[in-house]
Sequence to fold (481 residues):
Amino acid sequence: MQIHLPTSRRASSGAGIVLLYAPSYEQFRPAYTVSASGSVIGRDPDADIYIPTRTASRQHARIERRGGVWQLVDLGGRNGTLHNGEFVTEAVLAHLDEIRIGDAIFKFVEHDAEAYAHYRIDGAYFDDPDSPADVRPRTSTSRIVGGYQSQRLAGSLREIARSELSVLILGESGTGKEIFAQQLHDWSGRRGPLHAINCAAIPVALVEGELFGHQRGAFSGADRDRVGILRAAHQGTLLLDEIGDMPVEAQAKLLRVIQTKEITPLGAAQPEQVDVRIVAATHRDLDALQQTGAFRADLFARLNEFSITLPPLRERKEDVLSLCTALARRHGRPEVRPTMAFMAGLLHHDFPYNVRELEAIIKRWAAADRGAELDFQDLSDEIRDRMKTYGSRSSASLLPPPDEARTTPIPEDPAALSAVEGAYAPKGALPPRTSPDEKALRELLVQQRGNIAAVARELGRDRAQVHRWIRRYNLNLDEYR
Fold:
């Protein structure tokens, strides 16, 4: 049984915008649905989508569906409308595109906007999104931090936690696979401990000894009995991290353990019974590995009794604020105040290393001990450098704006909306607001062996935009690496 989140190619159950951050986020709804006929966004209480911030115009922007595609239209507010970090007059909206209106940052979703509306960015939960009085802290999970996407996956794990099903957790490196495994073990009620082994970090010659243990004298240097990790996890849970990197020889032995519930330590004459719940995790494409013979199909079938796929952080940026708070607390800094500039920088970043990368930022800030404020200087060099072109002008934004709905602007936070217009573009860069066709993108991915950063440099675009094109054409990055 596989559990995964909906993709942009599925039937929509409600397009809309999801709040990623605003300084006064408590006054916002977590998400808003949009109408195909057009929804006006602004600070006018009568707007289709009312956003309570003085930095927005009364009628600031409109989202509508034209010619089968979603469009974002700026209505002429002097603060402008940003689409993926660029000022625009009009722009085509794709799933997960970012929209900034005043000091409020959203992402566009093609489906499930109603479900996002239950989860506020600080971790609060709304039983009824239309009633602010219904807000309450969410206590259903103790380890898993995040809103709709994370809690939906957590809920599916909780349903099978007390079963004997083997679980496969898929996702990019740094997405939190071990956290989900720990939470599953907590919910399982198993009396034994959770033990984890990194299959990619053990030399081939030592895998069998690590898994099954050995008896004294089993080989040269074995001067004492050693309990293998399978025996150590008896009546508990064993997390096989990076299972896709386990040698084929060890895979056959692991399969036998799962089938017989027995292990035979090196040097032993008799097998021993073990009661272990197996959880496997990997960032590798196990289907592709099976095709090449690098992963056994029969082992995959045993491990894949139930599976979930964790979304990368770039696809769940509504969790960034609550993750910052949780990570700061983990590193001894329970008081934390992110600034608008800090959050704008984070939300404009595509996080190639996922939550692990965000944690590194928080750890550096915690070690510096400069106070509770997380500000622009606390971002990584890469993010600060990327923000140099934040707020640049696309070719579309140079067109005369509509005359309607002009208001006197409230000045933007200069640190959050600094821009260097006309930044250097690589030789092969695309003209503004254009995108490569599927064939051209495939050729670049082949040339760069799936290196997103290299492809982005060739096209003169951000990595986040390259990921959007990959999703648009439904490409599998592992095919190019």
